[in-house]
Design a protein that fits this description.
The complex is a heterotrimer of chains A (about 250), B (about 290) and C (about 350). Helix content of chain A is about 35%, strand content about 25%. Chain A has about 250 residues and is of the alpha/beta class. Chain A is built from 9 helices and 11 strands. Chain B has about 290 residues and is mainly alpha-helical. Chain B has one domain. The longest helix of chain B is centred in the first third of the chain and has 28 residues. Classes of the chains: A alpha/beta (about 250), B mainly alpha (about 290), C mainly alpha (about 350). The interface between A and C is large, with 53 and 41 residues.
Chain lengths: ~250, ~290, ~350
Amino acid sequence: MTLALETIGLEKRFGGIVAVDDISLRVEQGARHALIGPNGAGKTTLINLLTGVQRPTAGRIRLQGHDITDAAPHRRVGLGLARTFQINQLFADLTPLESISLAISERLGAGGEWWRPAGGKPEAVEEIADVLARFHLADVMHERTGTLAYGKQRLLEIALAIACRPRVLLLDEPAAGVPEAERHEILATVSALPADVTVLLIEHDMDIVFSFADRISVLVNGALFIEGAPDAVARDPRVKAVYLGEDIDA
Amino acid sequence: MLTILFDGIAYGMLLFVLACGLSVTLGLMNFVNLAHGAFAMAGGYVTVVVVNRYGVPFFAALLIAFLVTALIGALLERTLYVHVYQKSHLDQVLFTIGLVFMAVAAVDYVMGSQQVFVQIPAMLQGRFDFFGVGISKYRLLIIVICGLLTLALQLILTGTRFGSRLRASVDDARVARGLGINVTGVFALTFAVGSGLAGLGGALGAEILGLDPTFPLKYMIYFLIVVTVGGTTSITGPFVASLLLGIGDVAGKYYVPKLGAFVIYSIMIVVLLWRPQGLFARSAGR
Amino acid sequence: MSSPLVSRVAAQLARRARWRPYEIAFWLLALASVFLLPGRHLILTEIVILGLFALSLDLILGYAGIISLGHAAFFGFGAYVAGLLAAHGLVTEPVLALLLSGLAAAALGFVSSFLVLRGSDLTRLMVTLGVALILRELANQFAWLTGGADGLQGVIVQPLLGLFAFDIAGHTAYVYSLTVLFVLFVIARLIVFSPLGLSLRSVKANPLRAAAIGVPVNARLVAIYTIAAAYAGIAGALLTQVTAFASLDVFSFERSADLLLVLIIGGTGYLYGGLIGAVIFKVMHDYLANLTPQYWPFWIGLVLVVIVLVGRDRLAVWRAAIAAALLWPFRRKPAAPEPEGSGR
């Protein structure tokens, strides 16, 4: 079966610095794949390359078998790839209702229509309501995003990506910065994602990683260090060494 | 043809001295100062008044123009500009346009709207022949003065403590502050010197560019082009850009008078199409 | 699926685009001015044209976040196209000429949009300023076509639709301009509340995220820039048609700068800012021009400086307070979000 997401020799250089070093990643359909590694290992750069925010200096990217290396970011969304950001990237002046209806509008191909009010289509309305309910945003749906509590903003962050109905979802530290009391809402949402959606998750919190992932890749200094099932990776002494900063035997 | 080249170089170097202050201000504080031309105008008018009315020697007048304009720059910076640094680019544009309008109208009121001329000393008038090439004495002076200034600027930037503080602040203001560099002070001094240089450029350029109250508006685009094409991260960038523009403009107006004015705009468009961040900017533009 | 929620969502979305009472009051007032202020039609026409011009800038500044220092380029281009069409008898019916001028300006906007999209805020300022200056220089150089510094002569404007001749008191001109403004306003309002408009607001708020949820950012910006250029061109063409003259100052930097001031006074992002700002600006301009005919740019500059120092956010707050006071009879109970922009 075709891989949901695949990179072949992906590389990103900034002058003399290699942020992403010859990464060949394979993500299976329906996988719950976690990407971990120390700070500065290149995880977010990798996500930026996958989504087209940055262009690789070498290598190819394949989404469901299609080569998307040269595709613009918005096109990748149309092909089924969506992401969330580690630091909320929301539309401060728009309401959650407007933001979500925008995402759905674009997906339905109606984003460029200028002659009718936004959110008019009945099937869109049902879907908007569904997303709002699932992410507990219904009660704040017409408040300015900039005024929402951080936990709600984080839920909206994920809701926007989900509203794109992606087949592959890239989550960049979904629980980052969320107060303890609101974390379970985020995590429950992540766990409740449909089984046919492939998820690539960047996380630092090992509890989340081990409860969620069925496969883990460890990134160190921009390169894939170790890959495998959670148990194997957890037991591998080299992983602990990398996180604690001890010298790794070559 | 060589005369054209020579005149173009003179024009280019003059543009550089006029625009380098703007380049550093933009690179240092990410501040769009459209009123930069007003400082040039101020320097020009100070020189005109001081030389024509009070008979001060020309070279002394140049120095006075520099100092007075630098002082005005420092004053405005501390009292007005400082409130606008943190605001959006749109606000900075509006603010500096407002200042230009006020300056233009004020000068019009005080000095009248006709073009004014500096009485340049006799020894600087006319041309002499150099191996068959006609060299304008005044333009030669411009090249010499601006060349020395450029060297001095480069030396200060690379050889002095202040220079490294300035370069560090341009590169990353936040980190520079963290290192204990007084970025605000660096900027205030740089702004004053940049304004002073603009004033000096205006004084020198009054003879060539024509000085009247609409000077800041007429030449605003030229300064902006120099900064955009040359980038804001070095001295060499705007320097090369100024020469390119100066030679291009003079040559264009000579060989193709009808379309000569478009040479500058065409260069701008071509460069921006090819490299939107300027010819010499780092990969991360702002 | 919880039906109450679905109906709530549908209701909320529908309410967004509904015409507010103050809007209806505004246009009724405008209509009334045709009959109640017959002596003022000349200056009212100027206000309408300026308002349309400001509306066009609001589309790109207030809704897409593009700062333009050279919007007069499209205004001037439309003005000269309309003038040339009339002067050479190519298209004698003014409404048709108006539409053609708008199309021409749209074409110019489309072509220059690709330059405008590249680079940072500064490059955008440069490019927009440069395009306006280039056009001015072109008009100046090709004096055999445009009349150069003397202006375009011989512009004879035929009766509208063959029926309504332009009169000296400016009645026809005012009704004409006001109708054009209203029609274009309604279209702009449709656009702004449409999916396209929403996507533009998202691009202004966060272009990175907009692309990340599938918005083709550049394509949308090109679209609105082209539309805004068309609107500006139509405003310029209107000016030529009601004054039967076109001169180089339609391209001037002062015009672009004044326009920014109009929009800043009135507020961006809610469409009425340009119109309200135009009224205030014209009144202010007239008053100042009577005081100091030669040096009124000084006062304009001062107003700009003061507004920035006071802060546009604070200005938006005062505007909202004044609006609330004026609209007190029309207030409603559960507050739906007013289309009051953040003024940013």
